[in-house]
Each structure stands twice: as C-alpha cells, then as structure tokens.
Automatic annotation (TrEMBL), chain A:
Keyword Oxidoreductase tagged: yes
GO terms assigned for molecular function: acyl-CoA dehydrogenase activity; flavin adenine dinucleotide binding
Protein name: Acyl-CoA dehydrogenase
Gene3D superfamilies: Acyl-CoA dehydrogenase/oxidase, N-terminal domain (1.10.540.10), Butyryl-CoA Dehydrogenase, subunit A, domain 2 (2.40.110.10), Butyryl-CoA Dehydrogenase, subunit A, domain 3 (1.20.140.10)
From TrEMBL, chain B:
GO molecular function, one term: oxidoreductase activity, acting on the CH-CH group of donors
Cofactor: FAD
Domain Acyl-CoA dehydrogenase/oxidase C-terminal: 230-393
Name of the protein in question: Acyl-CoA dehydrogenase family protein
Coiled-coil intervals: none
Source taxonomy: Bacteria, Pseudomonadati, Pseudomonadota, Alphaproteobacteria, Hyphomonadales
Keyword presence, Flavoprotein: yes
Similarity section: Belongs to the acyl-CoA dehydrogenase family.
Residues of the Acyl-CoA oxidase/dehydrogenase middle domain: 124-211
Species this protein is from: Hyphomonas jannaschiana VP2
PANTHER family according to UniProt: ACYL-COA DEHYDROGENASE, ACYL-COA DEHYDROGENASE FADE29
C-alpha cells in the first residue's frame, strides 16, 4: 500500500498551484466569470502547455503516462482555485471516451484534446432523465451507414466553449432500457445542432443543446452500437472521482478561510475562534474534509477494478463528498456570519461550487441507492 | 385545551380568504418568493391592507391594531401564505412601530405610526456595524449632542432594503464612557438627511438586498430620540424579541412544502414520481414533522402572549427551529430540481439571456437556497439564540 504521489505528480501539483496563485486570484476569476466569454482561452492554453491535458493519458496515446491520479491532482488544485475551465468535460470525459475509441478517433481528436485546441463537453443529462444515464429521450435512428440524432440535452457544462460534443442517445429499446444506448462524437457546429447558452450559479457556463435531424456517419460511434452504457458508466465514474477531488480542494480552502476568519474576527472582546461551539464545528468541518480526501483516493484507486467494485467506490465517494461538501459549505457561511453571505468574499463562491457538485453525475440519494443495489447484488462475493 | 376552530373562526377564515382573493394584486401573484422586487411591488399589498385597516394586526387597537385573537392572527398568516402574498415588511410594522407605541412620546406616535400603517413610509434598521454583529452592544456609531440636534457619525451594515428607505432607526452611542449596554440611544433618522450614504452589498445569490449605510455629520433633531437617552439597549432588546417571534415563518413554510410536493410530483426518478420514492418521501415527511413541532410551539407561545406575557426568551426557540425548517425546505427544493438548479436566473436577466431554462419551478431554486443561509445568521445568529436560552432559561 502506498499513498504517496510520484515525483512527477508532485511537480505537476506545485507548478499548477503556482500558476493558479499567480494568475487565477479571486479578483481575476471574478472578472472572467462576469465577462461575455466566461472563461479564459489563454489560461486554458497555458494549462495545456503545463502538460495538464497530457498528464492522464498513456504514452502510447501521446500522453505523459499518468492516469486518474494525475487528473485527481489537477482537480484538487482546480477546486482550490475555483477554476472554471472545463477540465472534467473535455479531458476527463471527452478524453475518457476518445481514448477508448477507434484508432481513427484517437488519431482525429486526442492530439487536439491534449494541446487544448479541441474542447469537449459531455451531453449526457436530459430534462426528464434525472441521474439515470440510460433514461434517454434523445434518439439516434439508423440511416444508411450512419445515424440521425434528435433530442434535447440539459445543462451541458462547458458546452458554450466546446468544439465537440460527446452525446448519448437511444438507438434501440425503450426509454430506460440498459441496452440500446450509443455514444456519439459530433462537432458542435454540425448542421442541426443549436444551443441556448447561460451562466450557472457557480460561475461556469452551460447550454441546453438541441439536436434536430443531426446526421452523423458510422465513424461517429464510440464503442459499440446499442451497448454504450458500460462505457458511459465507466467514464462517469472517472468524472465522479475527478469532481470529488475538486470538492476536496474547495473544502480545504473553505475550511482554512473559516479558521482564519475565526482568528481575526472579534466579538465580545475575543476572537470568535475561541468559542468552543465554533471550535468543535470547525473540527467537524476538518474531519469531513479529511474523510472526503480519503474517499477520493479510494475511489480514484479503484477506477481500474472490476465493475462492481469500481461503481461502489465511486458511489460511496460521491455520497460522502455530497454530505461533507454540504456541511463544510454551510458552516463556512455560518461562521463567517453576514460576511459569508456577500459576493465580495471568496468563501461564498466555494460554498456555491460545493453545493452544485452534488447535482453533477448523481446526487447523494442517487448514489446511496446505487450503492445499496450493488451491495444487494454483490452478497455472494461478500460472503466469500 | 382544544385544537378545534370555533364557528366564528371558520367564518373569519372565509372572510379573510375572500378579501385576499378579491384584493391581492393580480400582477403580484407568483412573485412572492422572489428577492428582487421593486419598492412598488413590496408596498402594494401593504397599502391595500392599510386602507382596509389590516396592515398591523398585532398592534394594540388604539394604534390601529385589529384586535384579533392569536388564533385569528394565525389564520390571517395562513391565508396570506396560501397566496404567497408579499406581506408588509417587518422594519416598520414589527420592529420600530412597537418600539414607538411602547416607548415613544405622543408627537412621535402621531408623526410616525400612520405612515407605518399605510405603507407610505419605508423604514430600515440601523443596528449592525462591521464590528458589532453578534456583539451588538459594541456599536461604535456616535450621536453627539449639539444644541437641539444630535450629530451622528459612523457606519452601519446589513441595512436591509435601505435603498428604498424613507426613515431608519439607529442604535447610536450617546455616552462613550458608560458600559457597553448603557450609553446607547435609539434614534429615528430621516434617510434624506445630508451626510447619509447607502452603498449596495451584493449577496451570494446575486441580489441587492442589504447595504452599508455611512453616516457623516448627520444632524438629527433631538426630538427624534425615542424614550430616554442612553436607554436604547432596552428598546433594542424589546425589538429583537418581537423580530424573533415573527421569524418562525410557519405559514410560509407550509406553503413552501406544498410547493415542494408539487415539484416532487412532477419530477420523476426512473418513471416514478420523486415524491413516491422512499428516500424523498421520508425527507418531506421529516420536514413536515419538524414544521408541526415548530407550529405547535409557536401556538403555545402565542397563547401565553395572549395571556399577557410578552415575547420572552422562548422566542429564541422559534427563531432557531423556524430558520432550520426554512433552510431545509430550500435545500430539498434544490435537490428536487436536480440539474436545473444550475442555470443562474439573475445572471441570465443581467445578460439579457432571458429566464426559464428548464421547468418554471426550477427558477431561483439554487439562488433561494443560497439566500436562505442568511436566516441562521440574521436577527441574532442561531448561536446567539442558543446563548440566550442558555442564560435566560437554563440559568447557566
């Protein structure tokens, strides 16, 4: 057993942390979030130059030979800096699908993902599908060699900045069947795709994406036709691990800010950090953070295990991070008092990001249920 | 003890329901849960109630109160919540009004009470300061006597909706040498007086609800002092106890649960309405049970108030439990709307992008959840309320 990071991972963390410290301070972020674009392409390209996008890919794919732990390192730092640029949508999700695609697909997209020029968004959610990845009303009908996609994808994070989309659609079966789901890669500028772009409450951008008779060729299919769900679940679990890492970074900073504030803020002639009721609460926040880190490591390390082990680990982590993130976020505001409610202080923005992470790729209830169902199905193995 | 409504009370409910349905401004229906209302929207219902004589039900009759029993007032609250009515703001009606009719002189009553009743005069609260939040008695804003005026200097913060205010009530230090609580005075200030600057504070949900209020050599006539000089802390505490008792928000939370049920009926999980999933159904049940406990605690408090006891430290229970229910309600609402909590409704309006991404009921779900975190902070934080109960009830 080894919980140490490699030297390369340590260097990656240090240089990324420095870049964020120097160029992604809270005031700079505020300006970017309020701007028309909502992100900084130049920052994104700097991240690419630093090797962030290459880090998790294998050397044979042209990457640096890292893996999910490298993505975890990146996302922890992104969480600390509340970075809005779309690493999870483009590198973890987009890259996650493409690297499991055909040689031609890898050839076409991987270099662009790693250089930062090609930017993906993952269009998986639907207006009525909630967190069920197979609950799809978007359809892709066979048309000669290719397919024609119709449907509406909801809250596609990072889509306004994307050049390409990964789209999940139903190619056969009924609305919620596990079979009959297929993954497609499409250019966002393809005829028939329209978007409605908007800011999100936690400072990012998203789109409603509408597909109207969008024709794609057979080469747009990633993985197997009709059997895309296992791949979608795998990439979603990788995204969950990355989001958990982001949440850990955000929790760490929110907690540190709160402890520091409790040192500075005096009431009744004494720093409020001297009040035991607040001390214990900040200790509880700290324990939530530490356990969240543990669960994030656990889930990340188990991404390569068998399907049930991987899924249970990802669900378990997402549950703890959902709960821990809520507690840390809420108490950060409470202990900051009125100041925590202001847009001016960074702490409220950490709270908002921590809140919204719960609704990406399944919330606490969804993953508690998934964990429970997997455990029930897994009884014989557990009894061994 | 008896939980039944009398025939008179049932009749009363019919009467107020009919009045509300007939008179509540149609254009305001459905806006009651928003935070970004205009001055006119905030005051519209207040003014109608003022004309009807129902804007200050809790006041003594001789000052314009309705003389309703506590049960009638409870019914009144419920019926308004049914409409999500935008109620008269508390700053005049529940805060400075009772201070003026309890501690003010006849001139002050004659001058200020009519405007509070009618909704023509908007009041704001100058209590907190950057250095005086939970420790309110440490206010530093000074009022120095100069002939027949006080000259006020200092900075107040969290002055809610002061951007609309005509008048404010301010806690100022009039005796710098006295102990913290002694030496504070309660002074009424015309917000148009030179030297007052109201600066907006943007909150995490994107709204402009509170302000910083800077006072520089603000000259206020001495007749604006309420009660005795240096006795302001007594009035301030009286006011805070009143503020707390209104803070439970039972009727509004009941309406919020109805709305949540409605959302959870429309949202589906794998084809099953969210409200029929055991996880979510239990959460709503738990919330309803918590709300029932709060409601009956409030009813007991109201009954003892009706028996002549003013709001005491028990009102701290209502503040803590009431705000916990309100916060949980917004938390579950956000959870119910899942992905569609993310679109930033205020941001969209600001960028001219239109509102209404996803179902209508998802608009403002996240924003309201963020905003309601204030409730366990304002009006004396929930930690302070527990301190009050510790000291005043447990005697520790």
């Amino acid at each position: 057993m080894d919980f140490n990071f490699t030297e390369e991972q340590g260097m990656l963390r240090d240089s990324l942390a420095k870049m964020i410290r120097d160029q992604y301070d809270f005031e700079s972020r505020r300006k970017v979030v309020a701007s028309a674009e909502g992100w900084r392409k130049d920052m994104w390209m700097q991240f690419a130059e630093l090797g962030l996008m290459m880090a998790p890919f294998s050397e044979e794919d042209g990457g640096l030979g890292g893996g999910p732990i490298d993505a975890m390192v990146v996302m922890e730092e992104f969480g600390k800096g509340l970075v809005v640029e779309p690493y999870v949508p483009s590198v973890v999700c987009g890259g996650g699908f493409i690297k499991r695609g055909t040689d031609a697909q890898k050839e076409e997209y991987l270099t662009g993902i790693m250089s930062g020029e090609t930017i993906f968004a993952f269009a998986y959610a639907e207006p009525r599908g909630r967190y069920n990845l197979a609950d799809l009303e978007t359809t892709a009908k066979k048309d000669g060699e290719g397919f024609v996609i119709n449907g509406h994808k909801a809250v596609v994070i990072g889509a306004p900045w994307a050049t390409h989309l990964i789209v999940t659609a139903r190619t056969s079966g009924d609305r919620r069947d596990k079979n009959g789901v297929t993954v497609f890669v499409v250019e966002k500028s393809a005829p028939g795709i329209s978007t409605r772009d908007y800011p999100t409450v936690d400072g990012r951008r998203a789109s409603e994406v509408y597909f109207e008779n969008v024709a794609v060729g057979a080469e747009a299919v990633i993985g197997e036709v009709d059997n895309g769900l296992p791949l979608i679940e795998l990439v979603s679990d990788e995204a969950i691990a990355a989001l958990c890492a982001e949440a850990c970074g955000a929790m760490k900073v929110a907690h540190e800010m709160t402890v520091e504030y409790s040192r500075q803020r005096k009431q009744f002639g004494t720093p409020i950090g001297k009040f035991q009721v607040l001390q214990h609460r900040m200790v509880d926040m700290f324990m939530e953070y530490e356990q969240s880190v543990s669960m994030t490591y656990m889930a990340t390390l188990k991404l390569g295990d068998d399907e049930v082990t991987r899924k249970k680990a990802a669900s378990a982590a997402k549950v703890r991070i959902g709960q821990g993130g809520r507690f840390v976020g809420q108490q950060s505001i409470q202990i900051h008092g009125g100041m925590g409610m202001t847009d001016e202080l960074a702490v409220g923005h950490y709270f908002k990001r921590l809140t919204m992470i719960d609704s990406e790729f399944g919330n606490v209830d969804h993953h508690l249920k998934r964990y429970t169902e997997l455990s029930a199905a897994d009884v014989p193995a557990a009894a061994e | 003890m008896n939980l039944e409504f009398t025939p008179e009370e049932i009749e009363f409910r019919k009467e107020v329901r009919a009045f509300i349905e007939e008179n509540y401004p149609k254009e305001l229906v459905g806006t009651g849960t928003r935070e970004d209302l205009s001055r006119e929207q905030f005051l519209a219902w207040h003014k109608i109630l003022g004309k009807k004589g129902w804007s200050v039900p809790a006041w003594p009759e001789k000052y314009g109160g309705t003389g309703w029993t506590s049960t009638q007032k409870y019914i009144w609250g419920e019926e308004n919540a049914r409409m999500d009515a935008i109620m008269p703001l508390p700053f005049g009606v529940s805060m400075v009004g009772p201070v003026i009719y309890t501690f003010g002189n006849e001139e002050q009553k004659a001058k200020h009470l009519p405007g509070i009743r009618s909704g023509d005069v908007w009041w704001c609260q100058g209590y907190s300061e950057p250095g005086a939040g939970s420790d309110l008695a440490s206010v530093k804003t000074t009022a120095v006597r100069d002939g027949d005026h006080y000259v006020i200097n200092g900075q107040k913060t969290w002055t809610t909706l002061a951007q609309h205010a005509d008048w404010g009530f301010f806690l100022c230090r009039t005796d710098p040498n006295a102990k913290a609580q002694e030496g504070i005075s309660f002074i009424l200030v015309d917000m148009k007086t030179p030297g007052i600057e109201v600066r907006p504070i943007k909150l995490i949900d994107g709204t402009h609800e509170v302000n910083e209020t800077w006072l520089t050599d603000v000259r206020v006539p001495v007749e604006n002092l309420v009660g005795e000089e240096n006795k302001g802390w007594t009035y301030a505490k009286f006011l805070l106890a009143h503020e707390r008792s209104g803070i439970a928000g039972v009727a509004r939370s009941k309406r919020g649960i109805e709305r949540l049920r409605d959302i959870a009926t429309q949202e589906t999980v794998d084809g099953t309405p969210l409200i029929e999933t055991p996880e979510f159904a239990r959460k709503i049940s738990q919330l309803e049970i918590d709300l029932t406990a709060l409601e009956f605690t409030e009813l007991r408090t109201l009954a003892s108030e009706a028996a002549g006891k003013g709001p005491g430290p028990e009102s701290s229970i209502l503040k803590v439990k009431g705000t916990e229910v309100q916060q949980r309600l917004t938390e579950l609402t956000l959870e119910a709307v899942n992905h569609y909590g993310a679109p930033y409704a205020y941001g969209m309006e600001a960028t001219g992008n239109g509102a209404g991404i996803g179902p209508d009921y998802a608009d403002f779900a996240a924003e309201t959840y963020f905003n309601m975190r204030k409730t366990s902070i304002y009006g004396g934080s929930n930690e302070i309320q527990r301190n009050i109960i510790t000291k005043m009830i447990l005697g520790l």
